[in-house]
Amino acid sequence: MSELIQIGAARPKAPQPQDLTLRWSERAVEELEALKGHYPDLKSLILPALWISQREYGGHLPPEGIAEVAARLQRTYAEIEGVATFYSMYNTAHAPGRHMIEVCTCLSCHMCGAYRLADILEEKLGVKMGETTEDGVFTLHEVECLDACDRAPVIQVGPDYLDPQATLQDEGGEAKMRAWVDRLIDDLRSRPEPSSVRLADTVVQVHVRATER
Amino acid sequence: MAEYKLLLEHADDPAYRTLAGYQAKGGYQALRKAVGMDRQAVIDEVKKSGLRGRGGAGFPTWIKWNGIEKEKTAPHYILCNADEGEPGTFKDKQIMETVPFLMVEGMTIAGWATQGDHGYVYIRAEFCDAAKAVRQAIDEAYAAGLLGKDILGTGWDFDLDIHLGAGSYECGEESALMSSLMGERGMPRLKFPHAPLPTVAGLWDRPTVINNVETYACAPFIVERGGDWYATLGASTKNSRGTKIFSVSGHLNRPGNYEIEFGTTLGELIDLAGGVKGGALKACVPGGSSVQILRGDGLRDAVIGYEEMWEAGSMVGSGGCMVLNEHTCIVSFIWRTAQFYAMESCGKCTPCREGTKWMLQIMERIVRGNGQPGDMDLLMEITKQIDGRSFCGLGDAAAWPVAAALKVFPEEFEYFIKHGRSMIDTPQARALAPRWAQTVGV
To answer: By percentage, how much of chain B surpasses pLDDT 70?
Structure first.
């Protein structure tokens, strides 16, 4: 069975209410307040609030990040955790490396050589899919369709879609992929900001109207 | 037939992504015309146009708009399904990135026609560029008084907000999308006739119109040029009107989005995308991963239309046309399809949750070279147990491609099970396989 399908993965324990310190920045609190005007109830804010929390907690959602959403929206921890663990883009299982490289291996990408691209990335970084490099800079991940099949094989890093502009059907396609991966890794290494924080911030900003900024 | 660019006419013009550029090309004339019309007259134009939902099901759009209560007793919501997740489809992404105002104006027109109060665009969170383009469009429309209070002096208020998902294919299903927007796990809800339609009780149990991005983007043209004019497009088909954007990907020289009139053939569509790359045409999945695969011989003449495609053995679906060349192992392709659905099943109902995993396990043992005699019958039996028995359409969508491939390419499955390796024994085909499957039998 695919490593992508995890059944009954153990979850970390929820923090006790008395142990919880609210850590969101002032800006995050203001964003949440602005978004309250978009919906008739607080419950609908769970998804955007989890995005805010993921940004505030450095690109992943530890139990404290989930508990803070629960506290701010007056919901139970169990409910918020249930929602957060349903969606694949909330990093509830573990903190990713500084750059999470998500490789699409779904149909069109598979047909254009996504598994070779995945191999090249694994070789280059010396880790397998789902693992983080020892220096904590890169996490590799296999994802389902990113819906950019015209760019197949495509990868996502934070809010950006990137592609080698070569398929295995092209002349010298694999060599082009290798050269592109080398450039990509060098480029990402020089970027200090965690890509999952950049992604979460972009998502949050998109929710906020210009008049609310 | 060549391309017919209606929605994507100005897709290459960056100015069209700004309000000024959009209005210079006739943008917002349709909304101005609509607010001067009776609300019912707008819905009647949509009825005359023959517009059918572009998200995959092809449901007549006007029925949804007409189903909203005329005597208003509660807030009405306008919801746009921009959670494009179907493998092979990327048309909504391009609409939002390059012609976002068409969708925004279309939603506003739908809002006017149905006395809407608040609209939401539910976009998958991976589409950051698309979401940013829509954000900018909405902000400009607000600043110009085309959204917000008292739109165009009519006294009618309409708000439009963006809501992003967080990574779930299931949320493209309309009831799951509404669950997700309301802050729940993206699982589907009971549907008609067991529960009211979204037009009666949708978001927060209020009347809700929900359509696809492309459907809304058609509305400005229908209102401005008239439903009768729109219905002349695709008139050669039985019941498919207008244009359709096809996302063409796979083994092609120029993969991309191509807008065509209904009535065009699949062969013409493949030629538009520069023809097949790296070998002869072997097969095509014309409407996204959920639809039935077609054999290469004969598919070039298949006419694109909802009914016509059905007669050819497949569906228009969401328009995600994947083209495969002769070096494609169909068994491997279907194994990957099965993995997608097993991954994305939300887990609510047993036939889908268990059935998709079973299909994946069987497909995986075949691809590993451990297929058992009788696996084809077993797979077919499982597809029958899922199809029509799952809570929402995802189960059906998981069963159809597997069942179709077993019927259309039985020899490949038989060969793989018997010999423990793929029938397509070319270096090109081997290069595509994942490493663990590649060495089998070689």
So the answer is: 99
Window 193-252 of B, Cβ < 8 Å to A: 204, 247-251
The side-by-side arrangement of strands in the sheet containing B77-82 is B159-164, B118-123, B77-82, B208-212
Q: B117: which residues sit within 8 A by CB, 6+ positions away?
A: B75, B76, B77, B111, B157, B158, B159
Collapse the DSSP code of B236 into the 3-class scheme (helix H, G, I; strand E, B; otherwise coil) and give the result. coil
Asked if B336 reaches chain A (Cβ–Cβ under 8 Å), the answer is yes
Of A45, A111, A147, Cβ closest to residue B89: A147
**B334 and B306, same domain (yes or no):** no
Do B278 and A47 make contact, defined as CB atoms within 8 angstroms? no
B204 closest CA partner among B222, B224, B189, B220: B189
Q: Which residues of A touch B134 (CB under 8 A)?
A: 206
CB pairs < 8 Å spanning A and B? 205
The 3-class SS string of B305-341 reads CHHHHHHCCCCCCCCEEEEEECCCCHHHHHHHHHHHH
What's the total number of domains in chain B? 3
N- to C-terminal Cα distance for chain A? 47
B126–A207 CB contact, under 8 Å: no
Please indicate, yes or no, whether residues B100 and B65 belong to a single structural domain of this protein. yes
Q: Are B274 and B254 in contact (CB under 8 A)?
A: yes
**What part of A 168-187 touches B (C-beta under 8 Å)?**
168-169, 174
Beta strands B118-123 and B159-164 are: parallel
Percentage of residues of chain B with pLDDT beyond 90: 92
Q: Which residue has the tokens 């779904």?
A: A106
Residue B232 included in any domain:
no
Q: How far apart are CA A18 and CA B307, in angstroms?
A: 62
- What is the Cα–Cα distance from B133 to A131, expressed in whole angstroms? 33
Residue B255 sits in a domain whose CATH number is 3.10.20.600
Q: How far is CA B303 from CA B310, B311, B413, in A?
A: 10, 9, 28
Beta strand pairing call for B77-82 and B118-123? parallel
Residues B220 and B252 in one domain: no
Mark yes or no for CB contact B428/A161 under 8 Å.
no
Q: Please state, in angstroms and as integers, the Cα–Cα distance from residue B167 to each residue in A150, B346, B394, following that order.
A: 20, 12, 16
Is residue B250 domain-shared with residue B198, that is, in the same domain? no
- Pairwise CB contact (< 8 Å): B324 & A152: no
- Chain A interface disruption, residue of B132, B212, B336, B356, most A CBs within 10 A: B336
Helical ranges in chain A per DSSP H:
26-36, 46-56, 63-73, 77-86, 107-112, 114-125, 173-189, 195-207
Cα gap B338→B364, rounded to integer Å? 9
Task: Please report which confidence band the pLDDT of residue B129 belongs to, taking 50, 70 and 90 as the band edges.
Answer: very high
Structural domain boundaries, residue B256: 243-325
For an interface test with B, give the residue of A104, A145, A205 to mutate (most B CBs within 10 A).
A145
Tell me the pLDDT tens digit for each residue of B346-369. Answer: 999 999 999 999 999 999 999 999
Residue among B164, B248, B342 whose CB faces A206 most closely = B164
ipTM of the complex: 0.94
